Amino acid sequence: MNDALASYAVKNPVESDHGRVLALLDRFWRGALVTDDAAQLARQSLERALLLPPLFFQHFGDTSTLVEEETTAGQSEIKAFLIAFFSQSRPHEGYIHFVGVTPELRERGVARALYERFFAKCRSQGRTRVRCVTSPTNERSIAFHTKMGFRADGGDIQVGNVTAKRDYDGPGLHRVSFLLDI
Ligand SMILES: CC(C)(COP(=O)(O)OP(=O)(O)OC[C@H]1O[C@@H](n2cnc3c(N)ncnc32)[C@H](O)[C@@H]1OP(=O)(O)O)[C@@H](O)C(=O)NCCC(=O)NCCS
């Protein structure tokens, strides 16, 4: 196991973890998107929660990961999570849907370790390519994925200096579609 995860409990999520992960999203994503508009932040918060329905915990637990730490009160706190799955339609692809690392553990290799675990699972199933999608305004996510070697798979709109796919997730919801051969 990558050292970054060595002092944590690493497990596959189950259905009862759904609410625990949802409760973290606003804190993990704070500052990820560049806006001060309260209404826009509230809309983004709702959109994020809707992107993570329980089905991911019911049906994609085996390819997803939770990183937990035991607190002094004997409870488990989620420090990071990866929600990912094997494509049903593309037998050579894996897909990373969501990743989040608690702010105090950022840039210590935690997300890299989670990705590498998933890459290893993909390879063991003959899957040689991983895809994911991110918002063109999420600078941290763009920097992370670029550092991990992902490249944008096309695009037809410039958002700042980022090339995105116009209306990818719906009207006005431009996204960067990332691809990595593993
Ligand atoms: C994006 C995110 C998951 C990265 O997690 P992380 O654990 O800090 O990333 P890592 O430490 O594993 O970084 C891996 C590489 O990316 C680089 N990187 C990570 N964040 C970076 C940043 N903000 N700016 C520049 N480089 C960055 C690291 O330096 C590292 O490079 P290296 O391996 O060559 O040293 C984390 O910032 C996060 O949870 N953000 C909020 C949620 C989010 O936006 N998720 C992505 C969209 S679903």
Describe the structure.
By secondary structure, the protein is an alpha+beta fold. Helix content is 29%, strand content 27%. The protein is built from six helices and nine strands; from the N terminus they run E-H-H-H-H-E-E-E-H-E-H-E-E-E-E. It has helices spanning 18-22, 25-29, 38-50, 55-59, 110-124, 139-147, and strands spanning 9-11, 65-70, 76-86, 93-101, 129-134, 151-152, 157-159, 162-164, 176-181. The radius of gyration is 16 Å and the shape is globular. The two termini are 18 Å apart. The model has no long low-confidence stretch (mean pLDDT 94). Coenzyme A is lined by residues 28-29, 32, 98-101, 106-112, 134, 138, 140-141, 143-144, 147.
Helix run count? 6
- Shape descriptor reads globular
What is the makeup of the main sheet? 7 strands, mixed
| Helix and strand pattern | EHHHHEEEHEHEEEE
Spatial strand arrangement across the major sheet: 1-2-3-4-5-9-6
Number of strands: 9
Global structural class: alpha+beta
What percentage of residues falls in helices of 4 or more residues?
Answer: 25-40%
Q: Tell me, rounded to a whole number, the average pLDDT.
A: 94
Rg (C-alpha, Å): 16 Å
Beta-strand content bin = 25-35%
Low-confidence stretches: none
Bound molecules: coenzyme A
